[in-house]
Specification:
One of its GO terms (biological process) is thiamine metabolic process. This protein is α/β, with parallel strands linked by helices. The protein is about 20% helix and about 35% strand.
């Protein structure tokens, strides 16, 4: 069921989920559930009906794959030798199926290369994508956009530039506010702030910015 006219997709990758309750709250009731390979176990742990399973199935054991086939789950199997990760393929499938808001869960973990690759899929996507492992919630802000981040117990708020300079960065409702600041590669000005009001408000003039809410 679309939410306010929007079609929400939840994608589960095979990385780590460190706080299942927080992930459950973020997932809510999506209109579309896609699992990338071993991400199937996360969707099953949350009791979600899976609409599509994609991947080369190097991180999903044979018995689980056989059970998925026996249950009649829609499956797209891709070669092991390919030019895109399973996560990218899952994102593209979500877009092809009309998603205009996406949650990517399990996109980070022990493989730094996969984690960075998944983070960098976010600004490439033409619709809003939130990435989470339950201990962090990552979103992207682009030119002229504004985002509200609700206060959450124990959470840090960090801003990381994805372009060489992000200008006109204004942040209110936090312990260390910013007014029209520039955040640049190689500088850590935006790290480990705290939301002190009901919500923080982050806006960007020009550039592309990661907005990260993180818990220890």
């Amino acid at each position: 069921m679309a939410h306010g006219g929007r079609r929400r997709a939840a994608i589960f990758a095979a990385g780590e989920l460190l706080d299942l309750d927080r992930v459950r709250a973020l997932v809510g009731q999506p209109d579309l559930v896609i699992c990338a390979d071993g991400g199937l176990r996360h969707a099953q742990a949350l009791g979600l009906r899976v609409d599509l399973l994609v991947g080369d199935f190097d991180s999903l054991d044979g018995a689980a794959l056989a059970d998925a086939r026996a249950a009649g789950m829609a499956i797209v199997q891709v070669p092991v030798e390919k030019d895109r990760t399973d996560s990218q393929i899952a994102l593209e499938e979500a877009l092809r199926r009309g998603a205009d808001e996406i949650l990517l869960a399990g996109g980070s973990g022990t493989r730094l290369d996969h984690t960075l690759s998944n983070v960098l899929l976010l600004p490439r996507c033409p619709v809003p994508v939130t990435m989470t492992d339950g201990k962090s919630v990552v979103r992207v802000l682009r030119d002229g956009q504004t985002l509200e981040v609700p206060r959450a117990a124990g959470a840090y708020l960090s801003l990381v530039p994805l372009t060489p300079a992000v200008t006109g960065v204004t942040v209110t409702g936090v312990h260390w506010p910013l007014g029209g600041a520039a955040l640049r590669w190689g500088e850590s000005l935006g790290i480990s702030n705290r939301v002190v009001d009901v919500a923080a408000r982050v806006s960007v003039g020009a550039g592309c910015l990661l907005v990260i809410q993180a818990w220890d």
